[in-house]
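REQUEST FORM: STRUCTURE PREDICTION
Request ID: SP-0412
Submitted by: Lab K.M.
Chain count: 1
Length (residues): 397
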Amino acid sequence: MLEPREGIPPVVADDASLAEVIAAFAAGTGPVAVDAERASGYRYGQRAYLVQLRREGAGTALIDPVACPDLSGLGEALAGTEWVLHAATQDLPCLREIGMMPSRLFDTELAGRLAGFPRVGLGAMVESVLGYVLEKGHSAVDWSTRPLPDPWLRYAALDVELLVDLRDALEKELDRQGKLEWARQEFDAIAAAPPAEPRKDPWRRTSGMHKVRRRRQLAVVRELWQTRDQVAQRRDVSPGKVLSDAAIVEAALSLPANVHALAALNGYGHRMGRRQLEQWQAAVDRAKAVPDSALPQPGQQVTGPPPPRAWADKDPVAAARLSAARAGVSALAEQLNMPQENLVSPDTVRRVCWEPPKEADAEAVAAALVGHGARPWQVEQVTPVLVKALTAQSPSA
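STATUS: Completed
RESULT:
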């Protein structure tokens, strides 16, 4: 499919056009297909730069959320309507920012996982389920570009063109497999989930951090990361375009004494101006001046069980439980034809095995699973497997 059925709609970029779209979509029928395009890798943050919708009776709409930053009126017009998204958790944060949040949804990517499809990208799903090959190739472009070129808009419109058709076919397949109620529970959990909490110490996720061992070096990573983030936010560009993670780690390992030493490092080469170099060296110098008592500790404060590789030494019985639980979950996932992580979160399995309930019976294990956020269908499927693993004789007994 190379062209949307009704052609490429004009981009909605003013209040009058938006009001027409809101009225049309409020009067439409059935589920509404929704997608959003971000400028990841180009701009700071994850804001939406294009929102695409399609609904029976309303056709397709392409909305510019830069020109129309408040889409709460559209969100209200679609209240109670089922939204169809592909990989919903990727788009919901940026849609929430502009006033759009579904009360009901159907996630075609998650539906594909639960139904056992080996490839769950939108193009692969549309091809295997509906028999259409979508024109792809603009997913990684800079969607903050204005005006948006016609080939990009065509691609964006095609992303919602067949989404409701795909939803209908996947609903039938899930029903045939006896998994439709499971999928509905998953979709309800996504729709009801609160916004994610900001990550604690996000600088610790700098790529290459495993090389940084000393606390003073960690302070350099922290200072450079925070400086880069401020610059990226001010310039509205992706942090990686300001300074690479590799360059941050390089400076942390080298602890350069001055701008000249810094300029000799990878990532701070000839294309970087003197002012920029001075900015990064100032960050290094600030980190060097941090008192020992205020230096960051190596490793993050871990809540929950230790890494599984450490279990055999710390608690061999727990390690045996985890091994048995993993084997049981893996066999059940294969039997149900779905990925293990969709059957039950690996973190949940680890937590239950590390600190099992006092009575490892079905009721107590089910309660533990619920406490870790498992949905009713997961509790029903996984409880017998975990009871067996928790009550099995450990190898050391």
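NOTES: The two ends are 62 Å apart (CA to CA).
Reviewed by: T.R.
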